[in-house]
Design a protein that fits this description.
The protein has about 160 residues and is an all-alpha fold. Helices cover about 50% and strands about 0% of the residues. It has 7 helices and no strands. α2 packs parallel to α4 (about 95-110), α3 crosses α6 and α5 packs parallel to α7 (about 145-160). It is globular.
Length: about 160
C-alpha cells in the first residue's frame, strides 16, 4: 500500500462520518452515550417555545454566524433551517438573532428569514418561532411558497397560545 501526501482521503472520510452522524441524528457530543434528556410523554407540542434549545449551552452571535457561514458560504433558500443547524435557537434573545441576521445579510448578501415570515411575526417573535421550528422538525418542503409560510405561522400561533 502506497502512502501519499494527499490529505483528501482523510478529509473525505471525516466528511462522510459527519454526514452519517447528521443522517442518524447523532450530535457531536453523543459519541455512543445515552441521551441526557429524560424521556417524557408526548402530549402535544414540546415546551411551547422550543425543544432541546435549553439543553444546549447558550450560543453567541459570533458562534452562530461562524457556523452558519461555514456551512452556507453562498445563498440558500432555506435560511430558517440553516439557522437552526447553526444553533440560533439557543441564542439569548431577539436582539442577538437580529444581529446574526444582519451579519449574514452583510457578508452573504442574503436575509436568512423570508420577508413573509418577518412581516407575519415581526422582529420580537422570531426567536420563539425559530425555537418552535427546531422543536417540531419542520421540513424544507413546507417553505415552498408564501401561503405555506403563513400556514406555518398560524400553526405556531396555535401551538404557542395559552389555553
Amino acid at each position: 500500500m502506497r502512502v501519499t501526501q494527499d490529505w483528501s482521503f482523510f478529509y473525505h472520510t471525516l466528511a462522510m462520518i459527519g454526514w452519517l452522524r447528521r443522517l442518524t441524528g447523532a450530535s457531536r457530543g453523543d459519541r455512543g452515550t445515552r441521551s441526557r434528556k429524560p424521556q417524557q410523554a408526548d402530549d402535544g407540542p414540546r415546551d411551547r417555545a422550543g425543544a432541546d434549545y435549553y439543553l444546549q449551552p447558550r450560543r453567541t452571535v459570533s458562534q452562530v454566524f461562524d457556523e452558519f457561514y461555514a456551512r452556507n458560504p453562498q445563498r440558500t433558500p432555506f435560511g430558517i433551517h440553516r439557522l437552526c443547524e447553526a444553533g440560533a435557537a439557543s441564542l439569548e434573545n431577539d436582539e442577538d438573532l437580529r444581529a446574526v441576521c444582519d451579519r449574514i445579510a452583510k457578508h452573504c448578501n442574503m436575509d436568512p428569514i423570508s420577508p413573509t415570515l418577518r412581516k407575519s411575526l415581526g422582529n420580537d417573535r422570531l426567536l420563539a418561532y425559530l425555537r418552535w421550528h427546531a422543536a417540531n422538525d419542520i421540513d424544507e418542503e413546507q417553505y415552498r411558497d408564501g401561503r405555506s409560510i403563513i400556514e406555518l405561522v398560524r400553526r405556531f400561533e396555535k401551538d404557542t397560545s395559552q389555553p
